[in-house]
Amino acid sequence: MTHCKRPSPPAGGVTARRLISIDDLSDVEIAYILNLAEHYAGFLKRSKPAPHCLAGRTQINLFFEDSTRTNLSFDLAGRKLGADVVNVPVSASSVHKGESLIDTAQTLAAMGADVMIVRARQEGLHQRLDQLLDCVVINGGAGAFEHPTQALLDAATIRSKFETLDGLTIAICGDVKHSRVAGSDARLFVRLGATVRFVGPAALMPDDNQLTDIERCTNLKDGLAGADIVMGLRMQFERMGSGGKEAAQGYFETFGLTHETLKHASPGAFVMHPGPMNRGVEIDGALADDPARALILQQVFYGVATRMAVLDALLTIGK
Ligand code: NCD
């Protein structure tokens, strides 16, 4: 489903001026961004240059936590739209001289940023920056809370296979508790009409008062039943504190995603994973590498196209 023609913006324009939570976008803005992502995917597939709608604009990528996919795809996305893109080398920055994250961000914004992509683990930091900075703030991953552009690119990837998420069953499996992807994905997929289920050991489920509308299943066979998409999640040991390694003990035997366990899902179900993967921990390498069943590299591809769409929509389409 390649939209060669650029989709028309929503009648009321795009009013969102930040993307911190997936809930910052209205339904029509989400639909527009997903169509625009497909439009940009067309340029990328044909290796054609996209119009430089961000020429003269400055994009700063400020990642206080590790990143490969998100940082590099935002970098590529901005460049492909003609923006001046700066990647802040945080490990060599004044943060290490004791400067606060907010002071660092304000300093960079004063250099004339039009948009700042921020990854940080502190709760509420993105909201604070949105209040303080005179530029668009985009969340590139916030602790275990939200990762809205990952959710959008996951939805764009699913649409490239199924046209729509409406009516699909999506099982999100593994370390849901420590995952910022799981929450953003679940909220977005439900808004797009999918039935979403969290699957994993009870100890790795979100707290009882969080994401209460999502069904939880602590048995892999039942959890995968009828699933069209099985989204594996990384064991996020870095957020588990001490005892993290214990969570992985025996996990692969009971919850590992393999060709065999995928048989519990719908025939023709696809497996996805936001990466980075722990092969042999949450997913078998043979399944991850199977192009007939795994959409993991398509997710990476749609990461660039979707981030081009997000930057374009938030920076160039007014009310
Ligand atoms: C995720 C992240 O960093 O939140 N990866 C990503 O952005 N592609 C998931 C993870 O770290 O497990």
Protein described:
The chain is of the alpha/beta class. It has eleven helices and ten strands. The protein has helices spanning 27-45, 69-80, 101-110, 125-132, 148-162, 180-191, 220-224, 244-248, 251-255, 285-288, 296-316; strands at 18-19, 58-63, 84-87, 115-120, 136-142, 169-173, 195-199, 215-217, 229-232, 270-272. The strands form two sheets. The chain has a five-stranded parallel β-sheet with strand order 1-5-4-2-3, sandwiched between helices. A five-stranded parallel β-sheet has the order 8-7-6-9-10. Helix 1 (27-45) packs across helix 11 (296-316), helix 2 packs across helix 11 (296-316) and helix 5 (148-162) crosses helix 6 (180-191). The longest helix is centred in the last third of the chain and has 21 residues, at 296-316. It starts with 17 loop residues before the first strand and ends with a helix. The mean pLDDT is 94. Bound molecules: N-carbamoyl-L-aspartate.
